[in-house]
């Protein structure tokens, strides 16, 4: 997590501790509060220490147990302000794309299973260097950020090494549109699609493609990445959202599972990729 996000969570934990220590009926120890809430003592420690984000329901129980229900609304507003951390592109890209990739690399390195959905671009962990370079250049030009495409490509390449480490699995689904969007020259896209075809059947990659003709229970929307059960990162035009609360993680897991139902794998996925490559000939 970014420094400003973690600082907000630590500050919130201090406020939780202050509630416990200023109960109208007398201060409570962590053990006493845990007993009143029927929680393990470690949960009190994690919430107060900024190591765990408290849920809305748990926050209500906390303020009630501390005899200060009037504090709930104000603290809930603070909680909602940082439970979905917003990392603006303007702030992030002030130093270029390479630092953003470094942040992602940290999260990837801490994961063993990653679920991803991309609707309009080849997933970063499966990109060729040339394809990635063009993507970074396009975004850099659009946002007017530091042009550091080469450095960003190298940082992204470090992340791809994760795929070749024992015990790691990338479960990725993409819409067929991602195979056809020309954010790069046709020759670069062709090489990218060849690379994509080569990972079908790879032990550490489960690659699914949702064909244009597939019946969908949900419309395709913004790409997102789920890192185990601890974090979701999704993107919009103004910012990345880093979500670590259990409710949102479950929500994105349901979205992924729903899109998964429409995806094809193996030889069928190969066929969709081959069709996209053939379409490049006419461009």
List the helices and strands and how they pair.
Blueprint: H1 3-21, H2 30-37, H3 41-48, H4 56-65, H5 72-83, E1 84-88, H6 89-92, H7 98-109, E2 113-118, H8 129-143, H9 149-160, E3 169-175, H10 186-199, E4 205-210, E5 224-227, E6 231-235, E7 239-243, H11 246-260, H12 266-280
Parallel strand pairs: 2-3, 3-4
Antiparallel strand pairs: 1-7, 2-5, 5-6, 6-7
Helix pairs in contact: 1-5, 2-3, 4-5, 7-9, 8-9, 10-12
Written account of the structure:
The chain starts with a helix and ends with a helix. By secondary structure, it is α/β, with parallel strands linked by helices. Helix 4 (56-65) runs antiparallel to helix 5 (72-83). The chain is 51% helix and 13% strand. It is built from twelve helices and seven strands. It has two domains: 3-83, 434 Repressor (Amino-terminal Domain); 96-280, Endonuclease, Chain A (2-Layer Sandwich), CATH 3.30.870.
List keywords for this structure.
7-stranded mixed sheet, 434 Repressor (Amino-terminal Domain), elongated, single chain, alpha/beta, 13% strand, 283 residues, Endonuclease, Chain A
* Anisotropy-based shape: elongated
The CATH class of the largest domain is Alpha Beta
- The ordered H/E elements are HHHHHEHHEHHEHEEEEHH
Radius of gyration: 22 Å
Number of domains: 2
